[in-house]
Amino acid sequence: MSVDITPTLASPSSTTLPVWLRLRHSRRTTLSLLMICAALLWVSPFIWMLSSAFSPISFGNGMASLWPRWPLTLDNFRDAWQSADWLSLYANTLFFTFGTFCVQLMTITTAGYVFACHEFRGKQTLFLLFLVQLMIMPVVMMVPNMMTLKTLGLLNTLTGVMMPYFTSAFGVFLMRQAFMNVPKEIEEAALMEGCRWWQVIFRVLLPMSWPSILAFATVSITYHWNEYLWPLMMLNDPDKQVLTVGLVSFAMAAESGGQWGVVSAGTLMVCLPLMAAFMIFQKQFLKSFGFSGIK
Questions:
Q1: What residue stretches are annotated with the ABC transmembrane type-1 domain (predicted)?
Q2: Is the dihedral of CA 212, 214, 218, 223 positive or negative?
């Protein structure tokens, strides 16, 4: 008679894990639960906004509820749209946001090219002084900027609102780093072929620095789309207001009547373009920040 001496593997349920492994597993589980709770806490205002925007109109009832009240409706969006001149607000915001970015693209690429590809006396000192702008709060410069724009006769104009943002120290730094990563031989070859300096920038360097441009575009467009205090101080004409200022004026009137659903719908209408753009171009955004070295 033959005896089977093949060793049998113990089932996972019958195996006793070491103490250190059980502690490690419990720490991971606790950390995961804490991260989930933090994420839910972070996203709870957005969930409340969605719930309130699509719930039936209710004056003060269920204001703090995170769960929608059925049946879902679009009445809040209809009332919000009729309560303000949204077409004018969207047009002014698009002009302010993308107009500023287009001018910034010209200035940061030119300055970045000079700092990256040219040598001149005092270059490092000038670049460090230029980066000092990153340490100055924009609020500090509001009064001097307003006095300058008053002298130029640009108060209460969208052009005046845009002018302080026509250059960006962060953008210059980003483009300088991107241009420094391009091999010097490529620029020299383009110059030998008869290209002007501006042709080298826009036909050679910029196509090779596309991730950095997209990263800066994301930061610039998001910042200026959400800008509130500077347009509020500069613009007195309601026909020239941007979305954030118009939303506050609209929300103050709606809040006085407890119309939280209408306020939430208006807020969602302001956020929706940026949210849609991020969802559509999510992969490109994440890749651009990775390749540009932003973490």
A1: 90-281
A2: positive
Domain that holds residue 207: 80-290
Q: Examine residue 60 and state whether it is found in any structural domain, yes or no.
A: no
* Cβ(254)–Cβ(39) below 8 Å: no
Based on the structure, what is the number of domains in the chain? 1
Q: What is the CATH number of the domain that holds 231?
A: 1.10.3720.10
**pLDDT tens digits, 99-134:** 999 999 999 999 999 998 888 888 888 888 888 888
User: For residue 2, is it within any domain?
Assistant: no
**pLDDT tens digits for range 201-237:** 888 888 888 888 888 988 899 999 999 999 999 988 8
Residue 266 falls inside a structural domain? yes
Query: Considering only CA atoms, which of 281, 231, 215 is closest in space to residue 96?
Result: 231
Across 173-194, average pLDDT: 86
